[in-house]
Design goal:
Elements (H helix, E strand, L loop, with lengths): L8 E4 L6 H4 L5 E3 L2 E4 L2 E3 L7 E2 L3 E3 L12 E4 L7 H8 L1 H4 L7 E7 L2 E5 L7 E4 L3 E3 L14 E3 L4 E2 L2 E3 L5 E3 L25 E4 L20 E4 L5 E8 L3 E6 L4 E6 L3 E3 L10 E7 L2 E3 L10 H14 L4 E6 L14 H7 L3 H12 L3 H16 L1
Antiparallel strand pairs: 1-2, 1-6, 3-4, 4-5, 7-8, 7-11, 8-9, 9-10, 12-13, 12-16, 14-15, 17-18, 17-21, 18-19, 19-20, 22-23, 22-24
Length: 369
């Protein structure tokens, strides 16, 4: 194996017979080619120079700065992507291509986030390294692609006036740039990040259907009780243990379902009765059973003599299905969250505030008609 490889930074240590043409002692170069173990090319068009005339320049140690994209070093036992997804993704969004962003630097304490701004957690300098730049993506007509938030779009077609569109317009009617960006110079959940690959057919797995999001579970080894926040890869649960304040990434085989009681107790409240009418508190305490509520009514009657308290038991409920309009901003608007609907629409399309507000209000007028 030769002394140098392509890309190495080298410094000339032996004088050349033609210093003006091939460089003076002390000048630094980047190796362009290595024709043999004894020759290197450091100047474009040069046939080769003696490798013994150069020494390797040690790379400078990386010094993190705000805005750097980073991943954990090989020896670090912290899975920063899993840590982010478990504790911060819900409120602050995804990380990009498995890397976090340096949001602050204080000596060897590095603040991390998914974008420049507030630091959400910290790691030591030596536990991090620069992330490799993601391979550039070129959007090709006729193919399907995956958005940053996991949706399938396509097949794609070139627009008559520039940009590239999803033929079906299922996600948006707006164009993408040829590199997959939805909004130039910004990160959007609609950025196209990879060519879409259909999932392989799912093989029947009794264990995979054992749990669902929201199930109350117990860890077989630790004995913790909690619930499932998310399910990944069919048999991995993102768990949360309320008593400890943290959670983890646990395979189904380490968990057991805590079955609900087969004879659920009715909930009940206590309310003051005046002129034959119940006067419940604005947020009455809900008791787990009628017996518990009766004890509370007796306590209150003894404390407030001459006043009457009644026990009211929940015997039945009614609920209609929430409509699904196919887009999250429409669903938000339909349940009265107009401001959140406008924000969601703007994040999807890059619209200005006034046009987005008009679109949401027109949609509300349509469904009210």
């Amino acid at each position: 194996m030769g002394k140098f490889k392509v890309g190495d930074r080298v410094r000339r240590v032996k004088a050349s017979d033609w210093p003006d043409q091939f460089g003076k002692v002390g000048k630094e170069y980047t190796v362009l080619e290595v024709p043999s173990d004894y020759l290197v090319v450091v100047i474009a068009g040069q046939s080769g120079a003696s490798a013994s005339a150069f020494e390797l320049v040690a790379p400078e140690a990386w010094q993190p700065k705000v805005g750097d994209r980073v991943v954990a070093t090989e020896g670090c036992n912290v899975d920063i992507e899993n840590h982010w997804n478990t504790y911060f993704r819900k409120d602050n969004g995804d990380i990009i291509d498995g890397a976090l962003v340096v949001a602050s630097v204080y000596e060897h304490k590095i603040g991390l986030s998914n974008k420049v701004g507030r630091s959400f957690f910290y790691m030591k300098h030596e536990s991090l390294k620069l992330a490799l730049a993601p391979a550039p993506l070129t959007i090709t007509a006729g193919k399907f692609y995956k958005t940053r938030d996991g949706r399938k779009v396509g097949p794609m077609e070139a627009g008559a006036f520039g940009g590239i569109y999803d033929i079906s317009r299922a996600v948006t009617g707006q164009p993408w740039y040829s590199d997959g960006a939805f909004i130039k110079g910004e990160t959007s959940k609609l950025d196209l990040i990879a060519e879409w690959v259909d999932e392989p057919a799912v093989v029947a797995n009794d264990n995979a259907s054992k749990f669902k999001v929201g199930d109350k579970i117990r860890h077989k080894g630790l004995g913790y009780e909690g619930y499932i926040k998310e399910i990944r890869d069919g048999d991995i649960a993102i768990t949360h243990w309320p008593k400890t304040g943290w959670g983890g990434c646990d395979p189904f085989e380490d968990l057991e379902l805590i079955s609900p009681s087969t004879t659920p107790q009715p909930t009940a409240i206590v309310a003051l009765i005046e002129n034959g009418q119940p006067k419940p508190a604005f947020e009455p305490k809900v008791h787990a059973s009628e017996a518990d509520a009766t004890k509370e009514a007796e306590r209150l009657a003894g404390l407030y003599r001459g006043q009457r308290f009644g026990v009211f038991v929940l015997s039945d409920t009614r609920e209609t299905d929430k409509p699904d309009y196919g887009h999250e901003w429409k669903n938000l608007a339909a349940v009265g969250q107009k401001i959140h609907a406008i924000k969601e629409l703007r994040s999807l399309t890059g619209m200005k505030l006034k046009p987005a507000k008009d679109v949401v209000e027109n949609f509300l007028d349509e469904i009210a008609a």
